[in-house]
């Protein structure tokens, strides 16, 4: 059938002059159809950007221009949708939360984002979420939303709206909900309760005027506001960024975006930039300068900061509140959300609390954490704002870092939940005693040098920094616990009582709680510390009264075997401390460190479910392998359970052993020897002689071509039960590097299926001589330490036959000498040892018997003294070694051997020693002494030849 848009049809249907135009239209239609078909999916929303002028200020008549963007879901066409007011963090702008706005819009919400006054292209000055300015600005935005026809309303002028924000935006959400009852739900994230206590913290409960100024973070905030006109500084304070393509909304993104700055000459609306403080309001600027100069807060500054704090208005919040707080946050720690939760819940308002592993210092945290926060956010908004979905349960969720993702995606967090929110005090307490004498600590003059506990935005680096400059000598006191008998999961705020004395009567101290592993590595969880300012102190520590210090809340697991270390320091780079040098004395009260704990249920995730599936598959594989091994062992036992009577009491009998590979290479052609109780037998031979192949066959690592091996009369086959009577070190040590030496030994013994009582760990470790190093991770072992650990593993259970391949490899001379004594002691009570070694001098001193292998065959075997006795070498002590060598080189059949000691060793090869002496005397060489050279090395060289090479043992 001909297309209706064909050229012939057009020519017949239209006058000639109009054919070109018609063809162009058809072509355009075809192109549009193709583009429409190939064009990627359009976003599920459209945007409207505008500069909105709102009126705020104490009287509500001061205009300010706000840079806004409204995201409207396309599915909302013809119907009204609920709205979300999405606020950015300090130093950011509306673009900081763009990704989150898009996610919410895709979910069906109208989302209004804006750049707060004093930042980016918006006008006005920064008043730190002042109720008359930033909060009233947000109220005017609610008015504007209520007038939009697309927005669902509860009444005239009352939009159906939730408020979401992180840090600066999170406090705005709380303050707006307290000031405007039109807000239907709020989700404040990583924000503050009392801004005065946040920047002037004091961990004994003193007023903020006695707090210790958090100068590091305050300086960054002030710098961010001072440069706000030229774009954000990177302080968004937002918790997480939704991954591209994720349908569920998330909390605001960690990156602030890069919005354009204020254009030159643009109106400021509400006051021009302060020449000293950028776009900060004058009262904010003056308060900061006062505190920064003195390091102390005053009541006026505290009142100003509390004006911008939710703490004083929590009783007015009726909007259901989801509080999300990060554990990696030295700016606003978990206690801020705890104070907000308790204040809001006191009114009967629905409150839910979620802790995650990120924060101002940790970003969004691992993917599992950000997914959990996104789910909670969507659930909260859907029920309380959109009116869909079940009511969220009033559960408390928290998480801690569990390790690394094996797929290379960074850290992994494990989430937990409880039915009731326990607060920072936890559900129960675990007490751990730390001890140490009273100690003097010095405050450095001029605040320098200062310790480093954390770096803003990088609290996770505290462990590294602690090893570099964490606690400076002379500026801190340490109190340490014994190793913990079992692991402790800390969830909340630890507490401890300290005492201090000072001639100055006052001290600023910083209390820290470290987790110290067996190797001495110290971890300060998230870099969190408790600043303390103590006044009215006595000069003598005996007169000092105990003071309870509440440390910041943490979520941290202290493993069994780790210690707790309480540190009390006088300086910290993140805080302003006294300039005057002085010395204090610090002591601990008898009460121990009190640790809060919470028994949480693990939250299932997709990764966890897949992990269990994988575990199930692995378990099935393991069960299958166990069945196969059991069947094979059963068949072997059924085939041959007899005991050869001639070898019933012989630890090892090797009979006519031969190993030939598929390519025809013969590694062992004829090896035949026995090892009897009480013997230490050395298996000797040049490289490639067949020693290692013999041992590999003996241990069942490879099958012989011919011959038999008997252990106490039992024919040796793979899986034979008699293998349990053999301990071996063949082909070098192999251990799990992330486990300690002791943990490796225990894991090996558990794999044998035998009881712990049969392991004889203490004897084996005494033999290894590792001392306290047995508790260190194996990845930090030297080669010699791994060798000693492997020998201890071979001796576990005190097997009747010990087979060691180069046991002294990597050991120093004293350790080699000790190994000699160990092997001799071991070959008692019916036990025996077979040693393969290239150190002939050690074999001579250690072994009772020797088996010499060359080119896959035994060339000598028997007691060491018999093999040595066959040596024709003689040691000559002469007056002129050089002249003697010349004489001896001229005698037929006489050969001068090389000797490491520089002595003259001669192989007479049957020539009478008296004849050799006579020739030397006739040549004028004085002969002082002639003794037989009875060395195993000489016998070995005589047996295999100096230049002998083996068969290429492989």
Automatic annotation (TrEMBL):
The keyword Cytoplasm does not apply. SMART domains: AAA, PepX_C. It holds the Pfam family PepX_C. Residues 235-245 have a biased composition (Low complexity). The chain crosses the membrane at residues 609-632. Residues 652-880 form the ABC transporter domain. Keywords: ATP-binding, Hydrolase, Membrane, Nucleotide-binding, Transmembrane, Transmembrane helix, Transport. Residues 258-273 have a biased composition (Gly residues). Residues 229-274 are annotated as: Disordered. The keyword Nucleotide-binding applies. GO terms for molecular function: ATP binding; ATP hydrolysis activity; dipeptidyl-peptidase activity. It comes from the Bacteria. Residues 246-257 have a biased composition (Pro residues). Belongs to the ABC transporter superfamily. This is ABC transporter ATP-binding protein. It comes from Micromonospora sonchi.
